[in-house]
Amino acid sequence: MSEVLLSVEGLGVQIGGLTAIADMSFTVPPAEVVSLIGPNGAGKTTAFNVITGYMRPTRGRILFEGRPIAGLAPERIAARGLVRSFQRTSVFAGCTVFENALMALHLRGRAGLLDALLPFLRARREEAALRAEAAELLDLVGLADRADLPAEALAYGEQRRLGIAMAAAAHPRLLLLDEPAAGLNPSETAECMALIRCLKERGMTVLLVEHDMAMVMRLSDRIVVLNQGRIIASGPPAAIRQDPEVIRAYLGAAHAAA
Amino acid sequence: MDQALQHLVNGTVLGGTYALLGIGLTLVFGVMRVVNFTHGELYAFGAYMTYAAVSLLGLDFYLSLALATLLGMALGAAIEFLLLRPMRRADIDSTMLVMIGAALVLQNGEMWAWGGVAKLIPNPFPGTPLVVGPVSVLPLRLFVLVVSIALLLGFWLLLDRTRIGMAMRATFQDPETAALMGVRINWVNSATFAIGSGLAAAAGALLGPVFMVSPTMGDLVGLKAFAIVILGGLGSLPGATIGGFALGFVEEFAGGFVSTEYRDAFGFLLIILILALKPQGLVPAKERIG
Amino acid sequence: MSTLLGWGFVAALAALPLLFPDPYLLAVLTSAGIFIIGAISLNLLLGYTGQLSLGHVAFFGLGAYASALATLGFDIAIGFGWRLVVAPQPVWLGFLAAIVVAGGFGWLLGRLAFRVRGAYFVIITVCFAQVLRMVALNWVELTQGPMALISIPPFSLWWPGEGWIALYRKDQNYWLVLAVAVLAFLLVRQVVRSRIGRALVALRANEPLARSVGIRVTHYLVVAAVISAGIAGAAGSLFAHYVRIVDPDVFLFIYTVTMVIMVVTGGKGTLWGPVVGGLVFGLMPDLLRGTAPPEAQWIIYGTAMILFVMFLPRGIVPALVRRPS
Questions:
Q1: ipTM score of the complex?
Q2: Cα C90 to Cα C67, C73, C143, distances in angstroms
Q3: Architecture of the structural domain at B2-112+138-282
Q4: What is the per-residue pLDDT across C191-202, written as a single tens digit (0 to 9) for each?
Q5: pLDDT digits (tens, 9 = 90+) for B189-223
Q6: Is A73 touching C (CB cutoff 8 A)?
Q7: From A44, which residue of chain B is nearest by alpha-carbon distance?
Q8: Do A87 and B290 touch (CB under 8 A)?
Q9: Contacts of C among chains (3+ CB pairs under 8 A)
Q10: Which CATH fold would you assign to the domain A6-91+166-257?
Q11: Does B288 touch chain A (CB under 8 A)?
């Protein structure tokens, strides 16, 4: 295993002539929580979309476990062990919570067309195992008693938790969470933090985009700060808190000058 | 060479009416996000109304053309009011299904009203072709081309110079912003669908006297209108105009030089190839993810 | 609907020719049954993947032509002075050919059309069927064009003690169609309830999310298209050997619309939806016969489509069954 799980090298992204990301390089070591922060429009969501295959980079390299993944389709990247969560649209609407969990376990199954048509021992065993795993997953995020509800009937905070659980379902080695605490109240945010810690203990590396600074400071091993498509600082939380350029970016140039 | 020149002239005549059809469909798709399966039926409706006015009521030929176009607009406005307005919040697939249902009703309504026998519309033009050098063209076809181009110009003026035209252009480009800017969407939609339908009915009224009028005449034409719209890059009005002429030429030349039998198939093959092989150039940018 | 109720329904249908051996009734049900098989296959695409495929009749027509041509044999020029000659084959081989040819074109269309979504996908599928109709009309050497393929042999089956028997009788064809319909239903049910079906529903519900958990979009959509096309091809083969004449009109858009109406009114994305919708709209033409002109039937179909989409968009079956399946 290399020292670096994910490495982003000289990434640049242009959308319709506008520069979303100018030049970005950072690495995510295994078994850490790394946060990507920055003001709105800094390029965080774009970075997520590019790393997970939803957008193509204009230039630069993205290596996951030493192999290039830039330009691969999202499903191929997921199969390699890098899965993301979404800010919005985080569940399969019209399906029950349990079905959502089962769908998220797609990569844990192998069954193909032949197994579907002739569901003998192997296919049945796999299906039973997947169902057990789905139940366990819902247990983990405290949604076991909601299993039969339609996913869209869940409370907002519960939907967010289900979204994270689904991203983590197939035991990815790197989990990308896109603003998991957005719109949550303080107690839900605390639950969310506990969940992320729990996933880290299970051996998942986490790359986090989040606006809630308190949460970022307490969870992260390392923080990468973006502003206008460029990295302006990176390091452990204590160092970031002191960094003058970060303060300027967040509080505004005028404020810093005064 | 002479043959090519003749094809060029025929393609232009055909292309003018195709452009009318294509523009109507593109306008409706661009402004309302509706794939209008009734377009071909409105074309047939225009032809039948011309027939009714000329042959049954004994009206003047030119007056009949205008009347058919106006009736087409009225029918379009009715369809918009009854079917599309309640479906405005529905997804594009549901709207398509409703429009397919409406097309079925219209086509069979026409069949019921007029019977299956094709009708001939009498016209005041002489049946001897005008011959200019190596090229010959029937006066009626020349008239069709002139009126098509006049309608195209009129449409562009309407879009460019009038308030409703401006509102339509704004909605075409960005419906949400247009609504925020105070564009009355219901009014724009009614006008759009009525104008789109009027153009289709006008094309039918013009081509009705050239060919025959039959209840299924809208089938192929409806599909061809899709071809035109896609040739021009779905959602572009100048594109649809060019696409109309392009399909006219493709059919004329491919029909003349490659295979007469497959004349009508070329347009559809072209659509499949364009959409399947180069969709990224035609499909609008996807929504932001996340 | 419970499994028991389902098998009871099948048993009742199977017993029907013994209780009411009315040839007209059986003929009506057989035609309806062939369309129901088509609707069952369309439902896999329309209902479960959520892709509005409006070229479905292409696969039905391909199946009909493939089966008819295989059993009649043909002799065509394939360029460079070469000829492709196929001697008449047994009907079961024609049936297989229908499934393979339709499935193959399902793969091809899937590969091409699933690069795009929404209106673009719909237009490609419509045009695909239209191109095939034009080929059927104009490739006279192979298809006889508008003159139609005639004298297609009836279906034949191997029966213990009897050997090969040709199915001329109405009740025999009825049972054959019923058997294929049950097989098609079970096939779709198995697919839908498997990991594949789950992936399809996930793609329908939320494509970006489905991809993020590793579901290969194109792969699963193409798998669904191939299965769906194969079943439609089988229905086309049944049609060819039952009606025993095939002309280019099997590719008409109106037949796709008929299947779409069956699926939409019955309930897309439900196993029983196409069966219920198929029975209603498969039997309606014959209920109307004699009392209304043929145009009235299509006007009713069109109106039904409009009313269902506007007022009961999920269809009859979900409205009857409390919990959606």
A1: 0.89
A2: 10, 10, 19
A3: Orthogonal Bundle (1.10)
A4: 998 889 999 999
A5: 999 999 999 999 999 999 888 888 888 888 888 88
A6: yes
A7: B290
A8: yes
A9: A, B
A10: Rossmann fold (3.40.50)
A11: yes
